[in-house]
Amino acid sequence: MADIKTEKQKVKEITDKLEEGLKELFESEKYKSYLSTMSKFHNYSFNNTLLIALQRPDATLVAGYQAWQRNFNRHVNKGERGIRILAPAPYKIKEERDKLDPVTGEVVLDKDGMPQTEEVEIKIPAFRAVSVFDVAQTDGEPIPELEAKELLSTVEGYEDFIKAITFVAPVPVSFEDIPGDSKGFFRPTEKRIAVQEGMSESQTLKTMVHETAHSMLHDKEVNKDILAPAKDRNTKEVEAESIAYTVCQHFGIDTSEYSFGYIAGWSSGHDMRELKSSLDTIRRTASELITGIEGQLRELQRDRELMQGQEKESLLLIQNSDLSEYSLVNVRGMDAAEVVETLSAMNDNDRRNVAAYLESRGAWTTEIANQDTKEFGEHHLDVRYNTDTNEVIDIKVEMELNERAKEPISADDVILKITHSHGFEVERITNKTPEEVQEIMAVLTKLEDKNTQNIRD
Asked: Would you say the pTM of this structure is higher than 0.90?
């Protein structure tokens, strides 16, 4: 019983801290700091986001003591003080309840007309206090994806952001010359968003997110919560601007122009229940936008990689030594060097079907000709693979070597052609006479013959 009381006291201490922090939150810089924290922890509840912002506003990634060791190969530094948050700790109880018919939902009666009862298990929501630690409080293996995003007015991947935001917006988005000073608008009656053309990249994206937030929250046909009370204009602007700041901060888009000096005046006109409701709305909508935009950015990147892969193309000749059997194959998704590298890594099982092996490595193959169809021109080839010797030859490299052999040379130079299992190499020797090169090669040949004899013996 003492343990339960202690746990309840711990939770009460945290909830008291939340209430106190909420009262102080609506000061311009504190509110901005809270939104910055939320941009990094958008999947956390409102309460835990606020608790992290109050205790360690510069946190970037938090985890429990054991989780750092188990999931990241990092350890919490000695003497570090944890960030106290609330973790779900539901428990189950059993109760006697009236038995209900699963089809009609009505109470089931016994033969005497009395309600039948049954024991059911009920989950009771509860929370417990836990400690988490920021990555800055730990040491161990690096986490490269945590590199800080530099806030830029020009945005890397700007066109992708435009496409992603346009996709997640619930209404069409257009760019046009808007009269006056307006940067953009959402018109519920027309079901569309307009953004001023010609603005900086960062301002364009901020405006798109701002107006998208309006379209998600403040259009009764899009926002299905028709029972929610109507919000005043200032509340709508605070919510949309807060969401835009959070989303842009998350993606490293310049947010230096944002100011929330008006936040104190706005909050003073609302009770705590209304403020909590708006803050939770901001958190949920920002998280939904961040998740949606990230998903679209990944999709666009995958499509781009696929297109780039398809643009690569090479022509492969799979042949036996006397060309009595051959297959001329168009390989898409790999250039010649990649085909050579892939084929060189084959094992005996892979060699049974070379085209299938290439496809298992991400290529697309189409047979153009074989020994039963038509002739081929070798000058079109990129790679040749000999099924008898398993020799893989990059035609371009081979041609370059042949060209090197034809280059004018000094009278004192010696050209040496070295043949091996993978083809041949042409070397120019400039510091030896032909006689000296012949002597060296003779010695090498004797050494090779001797080694071969030793192996046979």
From this structure: no
